[in-house]
Write a structure and sequence with these properties.
This protein is mainly alpha-helical. It contains 22 helices and 4 strands. The two termini are 26 Å apart.
Length: 510
C-alpha cells in the first residue's frame, strides 16, 4: 500500500540502498515509486491474467478469512450459541472493509497474522469482536482459505485449457488431410498429416482436463476441526454435543461451497492435497512443453509458426528472423511449473505428527506460483493455437526430399503387379537409392531419386503411373479418418461443459 508511512519507510532506507549500488544516490531515488524499489514477481507484474492474480491476492485471502469467520458465527448462532443478529450483520457488512495498514501494525504488535486480522476485523465491527474466530484455530482460516483458493484456481484454469483444446481442434480439422513428414528420433520416418499431429497434442491436453477436473472435484474442505483436529474446543462450546459439532462442520462446509470435508485431519489438512494439485499442474506443464517444443522445431523447418503480428519485432541483431518467442515462453515457464512439484512432496513428507510450521512459508510461495504459472502458460498457448500459420509449399518441398525413399515399397509392389521380379527390383531400387543419397549428402543436391527412376529402362513398365505412386496422400494412412473420429468422440464431449467461453479472443499483453 502506497501510504505516507510507507513512503517514509522507503525514504529512510534509501541511504542503505545507495551503499549497495555506488551509482545510485538517495536523491536519485526520492521520486521513484516505492513499488519499483523492491522485487516484484514477473508472474504477476508481467504475465499473469487478472483473475488468477486476484485469486492469490491479499484482498481475496483476507476477505475469505472474514467470510469464514462469518459463516462460522452464523452456524454457531443457528445451533444456539449466544451470538446476535447485529453481530452477524456487522460482520457481513465489513467483509471488504479491510484496513491493511492497521493489520500490518497489529501483526507487528502481536506477532501473529491471524490474530492481527481478528483485531482488525473487530475494529470495524466492534460488537462482533468477542465472537470472531470463536472456538477456531489459525488453520481454520488459513487452510480452508487455501482450499477455496485452489478450487477457484482450477475453475479459472479449466476453461482456459478447454479453450486451447478447442482452438487446436479447429486447427486439426482444417489440416487433417495436409500430408507432412512424421519423425521418430527426429529423423523422417513416414508421412502423417498436420491435423493428425495436432490431435496428438490435443489428446495430451484432454488427459490434463481429466486430471485437473478430478483433483478439483476431490478437494475437500478442512472444515471446523479445532487445534489438532479433534474438535475439542467446539465440543466444549456445545456442552459435549457430538451432533451439534457435526452439524456445525456440515453447515460451514456447505456455506463454503464444498460437498465434503475431511472427517480426519491433524491441525491441517493433509499436505498430500497440495501434492495432488501441483502434480496435475506439473503434468499439464509437461504437455504444454512438448506441444511448444514441436512447434519450435516446426518453425525451424519453416513448416509451421506461431502468430506474428505486424509490429512484432524479430531478432534484435537479425531482423528477418521470426523467433518463436511465445512457444519459448511456454517452455520456459512450463519447466518452472514442473519443478514446483518438489516443494509439496518434501513438505508432505516432513509434517511431524499433527503438524509443523515449516510448511507455511514454503506453501505461500509454491502454491501461488504453480497456479499463476499454469495460468500464464495456458493463456500463451491459447494465443499461439489461435493463430498457428502453416506453409503447405514448404511442407511439400520437404516431403519431396524424403518421400522417394519412403515410397520404395510402393514401387516394388507396382513393378511386381506389372510382371517384374521382386529380387531384381529390390536390387535396382538399392542402387538408385545409394546414388541419390550420394547426390544429397556429398554434393548437397536435391533428391533426384524419382528422376533416376523415370530415366531407368528397368522401371519403364510403371513410368506412366509414377505420379500416382508418389502422391503424398497415398502415404498418410487413415490419418484424416482418425482425426474425424477423435474430434467427434473424444474432444467434443469433454469440452462441451466449457462451450460458453471458447469464443474469447486470444490476446496477450506481452
Amino acid at each position: 500500500m502506497d501510504s505516507p508511512r510507507n513512503r517514509q519507510n522507503y525514504g529512510s532506507r534509501l541511504s542503505n540502498i545507495s551503499k549497495v549500488d555506488v551509482n545510485v544516490s538517495p536523491l536519485d531515488l526520492n521520486n521513484v515509486p516505492p513499488e519499483h524499489l523492491k522485487y516484484r514477481s514477473p508472474l504477476v507484474s508481467r504475465y499473469a491474467g487478472p483473475e488468477m492474480a486476484y485469486n492469490f491476492s491479499e484482498m481475496k485471502k483476507f476477505t475469505t478469512w472474514r467470510k469464514l469467520w462469518t459463516w462460522l458465527a452464523k452456524a454457531e448462532r443457528h445451533l444456539g450459541l449466544d451470538i446476535t443478529e447485529e453481530q452477524i450483520s456487522q460482520m457481513e457488512q465489513n467483509i471488504n472493509n479491510i484496513d491493511f495498514e492497521r493489520a500490518t501494525q497489529e501483526e507487528k504488535r502481536v506477532r501473529h497474522d491471524v490474530m492481527a486480522h481478528v483485531h482488525t476485523f473487530g475494529a470495524c465491527c466492534p460488537s462482533a469482536l468477542p465472537i470472531i474466530h470463536l472456538g477456531a484455530t489459525s488453520a481454520y482460516v488459513g487452510d480452508n482459505t487455501d482450499l477455496i483458493v485452489m478450487r477457484d484456481g482450477f475453475d479459472i484454469l479449466l476453461p482456459k485449457l478447454a479453450r486451447c483444446i478447442q482452438r487446436l481442434s479447429v486447427f486439426a480439422e482444417e489440416y487433417k488431410s495436409q500430408p507432412c513428414l512424421s519423425y521418430t528420433h527426429l529423423q523422417p520416418a513416414q508421412l502423417t498429416t498436420v491435423g493428425k499431429r495436432a490431435c496428438v497434442w490435443v489428446q495430451d491436453l484432454l488427459m490434463d482436463v481429466r486430471n485437473l477436473e478430478t483433483v478439483r472435484n476431490n478437494i475437500r474442505f478442512r472444515g471446523v476441526k479445532g487445534t489438532t483436529g479433534t474438535q475439542a474446543s467446539f465440543l466444549s462450546l456445545f456442552d459435549g454435543s457430538d451432533e451439534k459439532v457435526e452439524i456445525l462442520d456440515k453447515l460451514v462446509t456447505e456455506a463454503a461451497g464444498f460437498k465434503k470435508n475431511f472427517l480426519i485431519c491433524g491441525q491441517t489438512y493433509s499436505r498430500k492435497v497440495d501434492v495432488d494439485c501441483l502434480s496435475a499442474l506439473a503434468s499439464m506443464g509437461s504437455s504444454v512443453h512438448k506441444i511448444c517444443t514441436d512447434i519450435r522445431l516446426l518453425a525451424s523447418f519453416k513448416e509451421v509458426e506461431e502468430p506474428f503480428e505486424k509490429e512484432h519485432s524479430g531478432s534484435v541483431g537479425v531482423s528477418y528472423k521470426r523467433n518463436p518467442m511465445r512457444t519459448e515462453r511456454c517452455c520456459a515457464l512450463s519447466r518452472h511449473l514442473m519443478c514446483l512439484i518438489q516443494d509439496p512432496l518434501m513438505t508432505a513428507s516432513v509434517q511431524w505428527m499433527e503438524r509443523t510450521l515449516d510448511d507455511s512459508a514454503n506453501r505461500r510461495v509454491c502454491l501461488a506460483e504453480a497456479f499463476l504459472t499454469a495460468d500464464i502458460v495456458l493463456s500463451t498457448l491459447h494465443n499461439v493455437s489461435d493463430g498457428l500459420v502453416v506453409y503447405p509449399k514448404v511442407i511439400d518441398r520437404r516431403i519431396r526430399q524424403e518421400l522417394p525413399f519412403m515410397a520404395t515399397d510402393a514401387i516394388v509392389k507396382a513393378m511386381i503387379k506389372a510382371g517384374g521380379n521382386r529380387q531384381e527390383c529390390l536390387e535396382q531400387i538399392r542402387s538408385i537409392s545409394q546414388e541419390a543419397g550420394i547426390e544429397i549428402k556429398q554434393y548437397g543436391g536435391d533428391n533426384d531419386f524419382l528422376e533416376r527412376i523415370r530415366k531407368s529402362s528397368f522401371f519403364q513398365p510403371i513410368h506412366n503411373c509414377l505420379d500416382d505412386i508418389f502422391d503424398p496422400k497415398n502415404f498418410i494412412g487413415r490419418a484424416p479418418n482418425q482425426v474425424n473420429r477423435f474430434l467427434e468422440e473424444e474432444v467434443k464431449p469433454n469440452i462441451v461443459t466449457y462451450a460458453n467461453i471458447i469464443d474469447d479472443i486470444a490476446e496477450l499483453d506481452l
